[in-house]
Amino acid sequence: MNQNEVEFNGFPRVRLRRLRRTTAIRDLLQETRLSVKDLVCPIFIQEGIDEPKEIELMPGIFRIPLKNLVKNIQELYDLGVKTFLIFGIPKSKNDKATSAYRIDGIVQKSVKTLRQNFGEKIVTVTDVCLCQYTSHGHCGIIKNNVANNDESLKVLAKIATSHAEAGTDFVAPSAMMDGQVKKIRKALDNNNFNNVGIIGYSAKLSSNLYTPFRDASHSTPEFGDRKSYQMPFHNTNEALHEIMMDVKEGADIIMIKPALPYLDLIYKTRQATLLPVCAYSVSGEYSIVKAAALEGWVNEDEVVMEFTTCIKRAGADIIISYHARKIAEILNNP
Ligand code: PBG
Ligand code: ZN
Question: What pTM value is reported for the model?
Answer without folding.
Answer: 0.96
